[in-house]
Amino acid sequence: MSTLRLGVNTLFYLPGEVGGSETYLRETLEALQRQPQPPDLVLFSNAENDRLLRAEFPRAEVVPTGVAATNRLARILAEQFQLPGLIRRARPDVLWSPGYTAPAWCACPQVVTVLDMQYKRFPQDVSWLAARAMDMLYPLAARRAVSVVAISEFAKSEAVHFLNIPPEKVSVTLLAADPSFGKKADAPPAAVRDAPYLLCVAHSYPHKNIPLLIRAFNRLTAQIPHRLVLVGKARLGEPEVLAALRDSPAGRVLRFPDVHFRDLKALYQASDWLIFPSLYEGFGLPVLEAMCAGTPVLTTREASIPEIGGDAVLYADGRDEAAFAEAIRTAIAMPAAEREQLIASARDRAATFTWAASAGQLLQILSEAAQKA
Questions:
Q1: Does the predicted model carry a pTM greater than 0.85?
Q2: Domain count along the chain
Q3: Statement to judge: residues 184 and 324 lie in one domain
Q4: What is the predicted pLDDT for the residue at 1?
Q5: Which of 112, 279, 299, 316 could staple 97 via S-S, CB 3.0–4.6 A?
Q6: 288 — phi, psi (to 5°)?
């Protein structure tokens, strides 16, 4: 059997800016290279990620487009008009587009990953113009692709519903947490070492529900010694976050817009609880990362989250501020033995999610698609 020549459309990938889709791309590429029969990678890069891709994947062939992906219009045009020519010359057996969109025409079969459809459920997460572009590009990619990949059963149901594609066209490949989250980390940043804290890892998109978390925490500050540590960058929900923070006692909420991966692992492991109030997730990596790190999780039963957390996390109503506050208070007061049992159960469950399995399933999908040339 000849080695699969796999083209990968990375034009969507802005290092440090695209959240879970960045983790998905990089972890999957690394896991693909560890497969028993790894594909030959041909990575189509943009101006912002070209150097990083060359450094992280030295065995891959990197084909630059030169397009600045920070310019959304330029990226869309490059994907539709420049990328097909580069693909024709590079001659991959199949093109994988991990970031929702793909060229309308391609000289080889295509597979596209649709991670979620949050902009349909939460239109306030994106600009009106961006939403209209997605309305055009997402269905186009799904129709042109031989196969569509979703990252959870929930994400599959959303893709089928909103993109009007048959369920049999969509395959599910679950994500995983980096195993190093479960290995003892260094001390967390000095700013959090002098008091217990609750952790939330999320950019301030409206669907992440951070304002409700802050207001719920504000109700408890007189009863608990904890601080609230927020890790994530400012996004379209930032005004509501800032409004909620105005009622927080001084020094009780700390924000880290950007942290090194090493510090993120330490923040997980040193926190008392991960509090994840999100109302929409295609997968929910922070939940799984905390489970792997040995940090108990309080989250919601929304979207894909129960699919990931199962019975190894606690749930609360993310649409009821008072109820969520009470759930936080109850979690903090959990008896030590019960807490340790929850942590052990979460570790066991997290271990069933692996990048090797995810990449192996994806490679099978890509190989089958390549045969349809």
A1: yes
A2: 2
A3: yes
A4: 58
A5: 112
A6: -70, -35
Q: Report how far residue 212's alpha carbon sits from residue 199's, in angstroms, rounded to the nearest whole number.
A: 14
Query: Any idea of the CA torsion for 162, 313, 230, 120, to the nearest 10 degrees?
Result: 10
Write the burial class of residue 166 (CB in 10 Å: 0-12 exposed, 13-18 middle, 19+ buried): exposed
Q: What is the arrangement of strands in the sheet containing 61-64, beginning at the earlier edge strand?
A: 61-64, 40-45, 5-9, 94-97, 110-113, 147-150, 170-172
Q: Which residues contact 95 (CB under 8 A, 6 or more apart)?
A: 7, 8, 9, 87, 102, 103, 106, 108, 109, 110, 111
User: Which domain range does residue 195 map to?
Assistant: 179-350
| Averaged pLDDT for residues 1-11 | 93
Q: What Cα–Cα distance (Å) separates residue 226 from each residue in 159, 192, 195, 232, 265?
A: 40, 10, 6, 19, 19
* Euclidean distance between CA atoms 102 and 262, whole angstroms: 33
Kindly state whether residues 154 and 269 are assigned to the same domain. Answer: no
* Pair (152, 198) in one structural domain: no
Cα separations in angstroms, 7 against 102, 212, 296: 12, 42, 39
What backbone torsions phi and psi does residue 101 show, to the nearest 5 degrees? -115, 160
CA distance 219 to 169: 47
218 and 134, same structural domain?
no
CATH number at residue 130: 3.40.50.2000
**Each residue's pLDDT tens digit, 108-159:** 999 999 999 999 999 999 999 999 999 999 999 999 999 999 999 999 999 9
Q: What is the mean pLDDT of residues 300-316?
A: 98
As a whole number of angstroms, the distance between CA 96 and CA 103 comes to 11
Is the domain of 198 the same as that of 128? no
Q: Do 161 and 287 sit in the same domain of this protein? A: no
Q: How far apart are alpha carbons 156 and 169 in whole angstroms? A: 10
Closest C-alpha to 116, from 10, 20, 186: 20
79 alpha-carbon distance from chain centroid: 22
Close Cβ partners of 237 (under 8 Å, ≥ 6 residues apart): 124, 125, 204, 205, 206, 207, 208, 210, 211
> Do residues 93 and 223 share a domain?
no
